[in-house]
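so my prof wants the structure for this chain in the tokens format not the other one, which i didnt know existed until like an hour ago. anyway here's the sequence
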Amino acid sequence: MPSKSMACTDLDKAAPAAGDDRHLHEECGVFGIYSNVTTDVASLAYYALYALQHRGQESAGIVVNDDGLFRSWRDVGLVSDVFPKERLRSLGLGNIAVGHVRYGTTGSDNKRNVQPILVNHYKGRMALAHNGNLTNSQELRLQLESQGSIFHTTTDSEVIAYIIVQERLKHSSIEEAVSAAMDRLVGAYSLVISSPSKLIAVRDPHGFRPLCMGRLKDGSVVFASESCGLDAVGASFERDILPGEIVVADKNGVKSDRSHCGIAPRRLCVFEFIYFARPDSIIEGSSVHEARKQAGRFLAQEHPVDADVVIGVPDSGLDAAMGYARQSGIPYGMGFIKNKYIGRTFISPTQDMRENEVNIKLNPIRSVVEGKRVVLIDDSIVRGTTCRRTIDLLRKAGAKEIHMRVSAPPFVAACYYGTDIDDPSKLIANNHSVEEIAKIIGVDSLGYLSLQDVVKLADNTQCGFCTACFGGGYPTAVPQDGGKDRFECKISERERT
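here's what i got, hopefully its the right format
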């Protein structure tokens, strides 16, 4: 199976099959607000991005639209670092704002790849924020380049922006242009777009990534990747944007174009419920918190064990641990203290420090695990190294037995829809049996959630789920070449691929 990206990233250089094991990262979080009056939309975007920070910690950006006048600031870093008080104030007042937080699955994390993307054309300006990944990005990029387009980033989000602008020059409205662009885009995209006078929310026909709509008390329309972004600004949840739907907010109200709805099977990424989304979010009618507890209940049924305490790896393993404990009757305990001042993308500057990274992030509570048979719940095992170090911490704290249960099936395939699973050869489950993995990471037993049960986590949803990374098959054609990273590689590295 081809890799999604070329083998020139630092991670690829450093990570063997069971090498550097990070938690998985999603690509981004998006936010937009339309108000009929000029107000401090920048601050509202700031609060929402804070709530969506878990979806991307590499960079943040906000564009404010004041009656067609665009002001923006984008930079690398957390929301709080990118937008100190004076910087946020400099964005001024407006009636539309678009915000974005990023973790890049394509393109490096430098400033040129920060979103929202701003494009100027003779019919006006456009700001675009994107969550997802196109599978035909390279094909479209080559088409655009052959027609004279000059790209300033290495992201497929810029491809989307150029396609929309290209169509805008041929159509009478931005929403018509977006609809025409959707005929050319393949893959995952949840978009929030500002034209000079309109705010538009778009979701791809499969609905890979979530996107929802809410309203403030004054009637302002709000779009966000998750409902927690609506909560952060005091907006009431109204509904999810349908897969394939285009929703337009302007001075005339809100209208919907559903001409692309129902043309493809609905395939929401099931890992949104397992790990990506915040537990207080509601996605497609289902509570993320309850879905994770359900995963724990399924694990207890699928992989029972005699034990003294159930603990979870903070944060996404905690809810599943509660569900396992309740279903099994084994007491639940808080096994770890998490350092809350280290983000998901914490990077250690030296190898020696990297070896101690888990010790910095997590510290076991000895009184909970010492002399105990422990059931340890985590959301995933990617490459195995971090997991192995976590197990070692529990052993040093005196755990008598460790039985690990994982609230997702084994990762065996690359993801092309906005998750940084790029090379199957680096996935420990693609190279070892469950029994072998248990020995590698140092546990007494290991059990994964089944593919059969993972799609039952959120029964209130009316959509199907994408399980491609678990071997469930790809809903779309997948790319055969990861050439969009070619400008971030040395010539010699490109020649080896």
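also thought this was worth mentioning. The radius of gyration is 22 Å.
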